[in-house]
């Protein structure tokens, strides 16, 4: 006996509804993957459960690229069909597009932080892991490059400081040598002056003192000669 046709209506039993959703979701994702591989088509599938849980599939995990392509195609087609569309509708569409893109970026950010991973399939988790490993390699490469540049800069500064220290040490040695030569020359000059004969002491008088000294000397001579004059005069008197 063949299987009866399932009537399409809402399943009232919560457990049966959840089981049916899980089975149909798995089958839908499988069909989307098959058509993507067999027909070389770009497929994007987005499913929200009644509790708001997201389930998605994209060819080669390129959901952003497929959505951007869909938005460009949809916008261009709408412009051709309705060339006189009002600007308010354009703003509404742009708002919806940007809102969807922001939600997608926020969801990807949560995935990169390790959150909300229950809705991802094994292939999507492997793709996420590969993206994180690639990003980690790039970060480490950049970090090593910055560390190498920092070390090179410190080595350059060290060489410059060493050259400056050598120059200062050379100048100090030159000044010490010149000072030692000056001290040596000064000592030789002092030794030469000590060997010369010392001058005799001389009487240094002013003009007035010298005149007084000469006058006193004349008086002494006059006193000495005065008895001689007296004797000579006495002889002439006799």
From TrEMBL:
PROSITE patterns, sorted: K_BOX (PS51297), MADS_BOX_1 (PS00350), MADS_BOX_2 (PS50066)
GO cellular component terms listed in the entry, alphabetical order: cytoplasm; nucleus
Localization of this protein: Nucleus
Domain K-box: 88-178
Matches recorded under Pfam families: K-box, SRF-TF
Domain MADS-box: 1-61
One MF term in the entry's GO annotations: DNA-binding transcription factor activity
Coiled-coil parts of chain: 125-189
Domain of life: Eukaryota
GO biological process: lateral root formation; leaf development; negative regulation of gene expression; positive regulation of transcription by RNA polymerase II; secondary shoot formation; vegetative to reproductive phase transition of meristem
Keywords: Coiled coil, DNA-binding, Nucleus, Transcription, Transcription regulation
Main location: nucleus
Matching Gene3D superfamilies: Transcription factor, MADS-box
PANTHER family: SERUM RESPONSE FACTOR HOMOLOG
Protein name: PREDICTED: truncated mRNAion
Organism listed in the record: Prunus dulcis
């Amino acid at each position: 006996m063949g299987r009866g046709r399932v009537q399409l209506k809402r399943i009232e039993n919560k457990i049966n509804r959840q089981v049916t959703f899980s089975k149909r979701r798995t089958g839908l994702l499988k069909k989307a993957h098959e058509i993507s591989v067999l027909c070389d088509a770009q497929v994007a599938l987005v499913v929200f459960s009644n509790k708001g849980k997201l389930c998605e599939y994209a060819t080669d995990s390129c959901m952003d690229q497929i959505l951007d392509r869909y938005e460009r195609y949809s916008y261009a087609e709408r412009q051709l069909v309705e060339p006189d569309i009002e600007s308010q509708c354009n703003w509404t569409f742009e708002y919806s597009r940007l809102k969807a893109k922001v939600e997608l970026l926020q969801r990807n950010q949560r995935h990169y932080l390790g959150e909300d991973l229950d809705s991802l399939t094994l292939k999507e988790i492997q793709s996420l892991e590969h993206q994180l490993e690639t990003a980690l390699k790039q970060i480490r490469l950049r970090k090593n490059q910055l560390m190498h540049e920092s070390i090179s800069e410190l080595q350059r500064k060290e060489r410059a400081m060493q050259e400056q220290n050598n120059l200062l040490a050379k100048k100090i040695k030159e000044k010490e040598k010149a000072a030692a030569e000056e001290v040596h020359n000064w000592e030789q000059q002092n030794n030469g002056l000590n060997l010369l004969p010392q001058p005799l002491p001389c009487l240094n008088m002013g003009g007035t003192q010298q005149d007084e000294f000469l006058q006193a000397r004349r008086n002494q001579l006059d006193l000495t000669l005065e008895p001689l004059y007296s004797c000579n005069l006495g002889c002439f008197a006799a």
